[in-house]
Structure formats: structure tokens, C-alpha cells
Amino acid sequence: MTMDEYNNAVKQILAEQQAIGQATAQMAMTGKANPTNPEFSQLMTKQWGLVQQMAKLNTDAMLGIMSPKK
Predict the structure, then answer these.
(1) In angstroms, rounded to a whole number, what is the distance separating the alpha carbons of residues 36 and 54?
(2) Which runs of E-coded beta strand occur in 17-60?
(3) Residue with more model confidence, 65 or 32
(4) Do residues 33 and 39 lie in contact, with contact meaning Cβ atoms separated by under 8 Å?
(5) What is the C-alpha radius of gyration for the chain, rounded to an integer number of angstroms?
(6) pTM of the model
(7) Residue 53 vs residues 1, 27, 36, 60: alpha-carbon distances, Å
């Protein structure tokens, strides 16, 4: 993975997290942001997956698992 690919992956994850944040805020305003709401639980599961993806990307970057720019 090149740094450009890393940066693009991070931008994608952050955009998805922003969308989740907006959806969660909408749910909170309508009183639907709670664990008994399947849609809310699905969003939180997706958010956790994104956190894990970001952690893997950062770990790979710290370990130097990056290829030189082609």
C-alpha cells in the first residue's frame, strides 16, 4: 500500500464515519438512538468495523508495511 492509497482509505473511512455521525444525531433528535433500535445497532456495528479498519491501516503504516510510490 502506498501513502496515497493509505490517505485515500483514511478519507473514505472518515467520510463514512461522518455519515454515521449525522445519522446518529438525527436518531438522537427523534429519541431513536438506543440499543433496542435495530437501525441504531446496525450503525454502531458499522462504526466499530470502521474503527477496526482504521486501526489496521495505522498499524500497517507504523510497521512500515507500505510500498514505495509507483
Answers:
(1) 27
(2) none
(3) 32
(4) no
(5) 16
(6) 0.82
(7) 14, 25, 26, 11
The pLDDT value given to residue 63? 82
Encoded amino acid at 19, one letter: A
- Kindly report, residue by residue over 26-56, the tens digit of the pLDDT: 999 999 999 999 999 999 999 999 999 999 9
Q: Tell me the C-alpha distance between 4 and 9, whole Å.
A: 9
The identity of residue 51, as a single letter, is V
Instruction: Please report where in the chains the cell 446496525 appears, as a residue.
Output: 42
Q: Which three cell numbers stand for residue 40?
A: 441504531
Q: For residues 34 and 36, give the distance between their C-alpha atoms in angstroms, rounded to a whole number.
A: 6
CB 33 within 8 A of CB 24: yes
